[in-house]
Amino acid sequence: MTFYLFSPVLLFLLVILQVTILDLFSFGWIGMEISIIVVIYAGFHLDAFRGDILSFLLGFFMDCLTSTVFGCHLFLYMVIYGCSMIVGERVYAGKPSLIAFFTAFCTLLKGMMIILIYRFFFGSNLLHEMPTFFVPQALVLGLLSPILFNLFQRFEVLLNVEDRQPSRRI
Amino acid sequence: MLIPRKYLPLVVVAFLLLLSLVVLSYSAVRLSETGFLRKMILEAAVPVEGAVNKTIRAVDDAWKRYIFLVGIEDENRRLRRQNAALSEQLNRYREGYLEGMRLRKILDLKEGLSNKAVTARVVDHSRASLFKTILINKGTAEGLRVGFPVLSDQGVVGRIIETAWHASQVLLLTDGNSNIDGMIQRSRAQGILQGAGSAGCLLKYISRAEEVLPGDVVLSSGLTGIFPKGLMLGVVTGATRAGDGLFQKIDVAPAVNIEKLEEVLALIPETGNEK
């Protein structure tokens, strides 16, 4: 119950912190999109219902506060969550290298999807953003993800959420 | 159950994906009004974001005011050093300019004279001495001899009383030992301008009958042949006819500001020993 009560507020605050404080640390170069890591964490560690809610809410908040096309983040986060869920069911999700690699991959995937969405809906070409924005973002988020996963686990304990899967599951 | 439990999470995800895709497609092609829920989120975000940004600004200000002061202090020190160096440079340029102006005046004076002249720099003032003299950096090597007159752009300075190879001592016209033949420009009355130390000079041997007024200009008369005629000596500051003597007591302020002399011109008389 605690999860359902606090997670919307915490996710809302996370998005606000992301667009205010974390943007300062990126010096306007890359977006420090910690919410992607949260979605991946949800896919790896939370049960389907909670993960769905969390990803949906994060996408919704992101769309409300940052997105120019409503539903863009909603869709992207659901895709990332779906991928994370499938991967998390099949491999050991506690390995830092896997977390880092998968986060970087999802960030690039998100970048490619944004490029495709813009191409498909608006006819604009954002491919040049790939090496200058999405690749550095993928690297930074990939490096940060193992540390943040550790942090999220502590939060999870606070919110009394049990793991969907044991951490040493193969 | 219609859907196996094993695939239920995937089905939910697929449903949400489909839903989000529909939302995305709808909002991408149509410009719709902001929904109630989105309005609520935006409304809620404004004060929170405002508070966060205010905190960030406060921290940023504190950083700039206090911690960043270290950098400002360094910059301040560097700018002070730069300022000092530039002031020094400016001072040198100003000195050079003023020197140039003075030398130009001296040059003009030199060109206006028929005599040969040597420009010299004042090396020393004997301020505390009873004798009013200055030391210049030119001497016999440049053709100067004892008795040669010395001028500045303002007027007569004095005459040379000692010479070395590259230095000469000049007796100022304010020294009690200095006597220069002079005349009042307006009345052409002739006399001898004698030094009176700190009091300036006295114009002697002017008849009581002569009308002498303060402000009258005193020039060299050229009678003795040392000083060319018509050089500025000074200005009358006062004249009295007290006592039973034949002459007036005329006080004269030297035209030259002795204390501020830096460059002078030593004249080589046409009959003198030229180099």
Topology:
The complex is a heterodimer of chains A (170) and B (275).
Chain A: H1 2-25, H2 34-45, H3 48-65, H4 72-90, H5 96-122, H6 129-158
Helix pairs in contact in A: 1-3, 2-3, 2-4, 2-6, 3-4, 4-5, 5-6
Chain B: H1 8-29, H2 36-67, H3 69-112, E1 116-125, E2 133-136, E3 149-151, E4 156-163, E5 168-172, E6 179-184, E7 190-195, E8 201-204, E9 217-220, E10 232-240, E11 249-254, E12 263-268
Antiparallel strand pairs in B: 1-2, 1-12, 2-5, 3-4, 3-12, 4-5, 6-7, 6-9, 7-8, 8-11, 9-10, 10-11
Low-confidence stretches of chain A: 163-170
List low-pLDDT spans of chain B: none
Give the SSE string of chain A: HHHHHH
In total, the number of strands of chain A is 0
Q: How much of the polypeptide of chain B forms β-strand, as a percent range?
A: 25-35%
Oligomerization category of the chains in this entry: heterodimer
Mean pLDDT of chain B: 83
> Which two chains form the greatest contact, residue counts included?
A-B, 35 and 28 residues
Do you know the CATH architecture of one domain in chain B? Beta Barrel
Shape of chain B: rod-shaped
CATH class of one domain in chain B: Mainly Beta
Q: What is the makeup of the main sheet of chain A?
A: none
- Give the spatial strand order of the biggest sheet of chain B: 1-2-5-4-3-12
| Overall structural domain count of chain A | 1
Report on the biggest sheet of chain B.
6 strands, antiparallel, barrel
Q: Can you tell me about this structure?
A:
The complex is a heterodimer of chains A (170) and B (275). Chain A is mainly α. The relative contact order of chain A is 0.15. Chain A has six helices and no strands. Chain A has one domain (2-25, 33-158). By secondary structure, chain B is α+β, with helices and mostly antiparallel strands. Chain B has helices at residues 8-29, 36-67, 69-112, and strands at 116-125, 133-136, 149-151, 156-163, 168-172, 179-184, 190-195, 201-204, 217-220, 232-240, 249-254, 263-268. In chain B, the strands form two sheets. A six-stranded antiparallel barrel of chain B has the order 1-2-5-4-3-12. In chain B, strands 6-7-8-11-10-9 form a six-stranded antiparallel β-barrel. In chain B, a hairpin with a 5-residue loop joins strand 7 (190-195) and strand 8 (201-204). Chain B is rod-shaped and about 145 Å long. The model of chain B has no long low-confidence stretch (mean pLDDT 83). The A-B interface holds A 12-13, 16-17, 19-21, 24, 47-49, 52, 55-56, 59-61, 63-65, 69-72, 74-75, 78-79, 81-82, 85-86, 117, 121-122 and B 8-10, 12-14, 16-17, 20-29, 38, 41-42, 44-45, 48-49, 52-53, 56.
